[in-house]
From TrEMBL:
Family label: Belongs to the glycosyl hydrolase 9 (cellulase E) family.
Entry-linked Gene3D superfamilies: 1.50.10.10
One GO BP annotation of this record: cellulose catabolic process
Protein name as catalogued: Endoglucanase
Active site: H409, D460, E469
Record keywords, A-Z: Carbohydrate metabolism, Cellulose degradation, Glycosidase, Hydrolase, Polysaccharide degradation, Signal
Sequence ranges assigned to domain Glycoside hydrolase family in this UniProt record: 32-482
A Pfam family the protein falls into: Glyco_hydro_9
InterPro entries: 6-hairpin_glycosidase_sf (IPR008928), 6hp_glycosidase-like_sf (IPR012341), Glyco_hydro_9 (IPR001701), Glyco_hydro_9_Asp/Glu_AS (IPR033126), Glyco_hydro_9_His_AS (IPR018221)
Catalytic activity: Endohydrolysis of (1->4)-beta-D-glucosidic linkages in cellulose, lichenin and cereal beta-D-glucans
Record-listed E.C. numbers: 3.2.1.4
Top-level lineage group: Eukaryota
Length: 493
């Protein structure tokens, strides 16, 4: 017997309501604490050098043990920034800054175990950065020849490509990488201030030295011909925090005067709606705005104006919104590794929301006043998208949820672990594993890939590195965002 049309309508309505309710049940709950733990664990899989006894990522082994030996310097340690085996100091310094900034802003929200693990992750990088500036008027900026490295598909433990060391000696300029190193060490000094005061002092002293090198010999490190052939086109953009982190770490008035008098040079009036390893303007403006919001430095208002403008551009309801979103709601910037933009901008949204909250302020976006709650909603949308609330129904963090990328563009993850297969796998022998359609044998837990395209589509293709390659500078700002939401998990929208 056929049901009546009214019964069909009721049944259809009930089914729709059931599906909506089911979707909300799945989408509105995210285990931010689990995601935080895994986002930090990722960094252990990126380690270079001698691995400690408490190493938790068991499929990795020691690697890069001779780094720097050809130049008579110890450059072991640090992180491989992505799925290859080169150590680029520029993005590594940015990664260090963001991990340390996560501790500075959200460390109190972290469980003690994860705060410890984050500090360990910071120190693995900051120890290496200290080595990179250990010689007067010289900064080591890279280890590994990227051309030969990228022509191979081999585990870091098997590396037989050239471990070329790239350095810049004064008076040749290296302002970008030296300034970012100064920022990283200054931020790290703040992160360690309570946990290890002695180490904090060492970091700050070296941050001041790195800043002096950056400011005394101004220009991009990639302008040096011997560096350009190694760094470009990978990491050769020019920008930096300059004195901002040193001001915050030292409270020295000379740094704030520097920031105020160099506002135009530092890009305070450049309303660029992005933030990452190669463009610090938005982060610089947010960082400096803290002093303006707290009412202590009115001569820095230009930075606050630009920071406000940046926040307005991120709110779709604002008349000045001009950032691009995918149909599913993800912040999107053309180019590869898009989630680096989503995670770094999310971090700034939460930091600025906290600054505004503590002073009961809002941002004027034309006809709309935007408060901390609106900024946090936008941030949570981005985090939830990454964790699986998206058209693909996929978590873009490996090892989180039931559906996540299986074929990430990562040498160590895609090749058999040296613990399981100790025989040497030569440069071209790894191609067999690269071309395999099977999942990676080593699950790189916590790795966040480059993410979907502007149409929200992700094909889980190892060869498509723009979408499938994880990087340290995607994860680093996400650590702070996840720490906030782990402590404040209530859905905001």
């Amino acid at each position: 017997m056929r049901p009546s049309s009214s019964k069909l309508k009721n049944m259809t309505l009930m089914m729709i309501l059931f599906l909506i309710g089911s979707t909300r049940l799945v989408d509105s709950y995210h285990d931010y604490q689990e995601a935080l733990t895994k986002s930090i664990l990722f960094f252990e899989g990126q380690r270079s050098g001698y691995l400690p006894q408490d190493q938790r990522v068991g499929w990795r082994g020691d690697s890069g043990l001779g780094d720097g030996s050809g130049r008579g310097v110890d450059l072991t340690g640090g992180y491989y920034d992505a799925g290859d085996n080169v150590k680029f100091n520029f993005p590594m310094a940015f990664t260090t800054t963001m991990l340390a900034w996560s501790v500075v802003e959200f460390g109190e929200s972290m469980p003690s175990s994860e705060l410890r693990n984050t500090l360990v992750a910071v120190k693995w990088a900051s120890d290496y950065l200290l080595k990179s500036i250990s010689q007067p008027n010289r900064i080591y900026v890279q280890v590994g020849d990227p051309i030969s490295d990228h022509n191979c598909w081999e585990r870091p433990e098997d590396m037989d490509t050239a471990r070329t060391v790239y350095a810049v000696d004064a008076p040749n300029p290296a302002s970008d990488v030296a300034a970012e190193t100064a920022a990283a060490l200054a931020a790290a000094s703040m992160a360690f201030r309570s946990a290890d005061p002695g180490y904090s002092e060492t970091l700050l002293r070296n941050a001041i030295s790195a800043f002096q090198l950056a400011d005394s010999y101004r220009g991009a490190y990639s302008d040096n011909s011997d560096v350009r052939q190694g760094a470009c086109p990978f990491y050769c953009d020019f920008d930096g925090y300059q004195a901002t982190w040193l001001r915050r770490a030292t409270q020295d008035e000379s740094y704030i005067n520097y920031v105020a008098s160099n506002a135009h040079t530092l890009g305070a009036d450049d309303n660029i709606n992005e933030f990452g390893w190669d463009n610090k303007h938005a982060g610089l403006n947010v960082l400096v705005s803290k002093e303006v919001i707290e009412g202590s430095m009115y001569n820095l208002q230009l930075y606050k104006t630009s920071a406000d403008s940046f926040m307005c551009s991120l709110i779709p309801e604002s008349s000045s919104s001009h950032i691009e979103f995918t149909p599913g709601g993800l912040i999107y910037k053309p180019g590869g590794s898009n989630l680096q933009h989503a995670t770094s901008i999310t971090f700034l949204l939460l930091v600025y929301a906290n600054y505004l909250d503590k002073s009961s302020q809002t941002v004027n976006c034309g006809t709309l006043n935007v408060g901390p709650a609106s900024l946090r909603k936008q941030a949570q949308r981005q985090v939830n998208y990454i964790l699986g609330e998206n058209p693909m129904g996929m978590s873009y963090m490996v090892g989180y949820s039931q559906k996540y990328p299986q074929r990430i563009h990562h040498r160590g993850s895609s090749l058999p672990s040296i613990k399981d297969y100790p025989q040497h796998i030569a440069c071209k022998e790894g191609s067999y594993y690269f071309n395999s359609s099977g999942p990676n044998p080593n699950v790189h837990v916590g790795a966040v890939v480059g993410g979907p395209g502007e149409d929200d589509v992700y094909n889980d293709d190892r060869a498509d590195f723009r979408k499938s390659e994880p990087t340290t500078y995607i994860n680093a700002p996400l650590v702070g965002a996840l720490a906030y939401f782990a402590a404040n998990p209530t859905p905001l929208y």
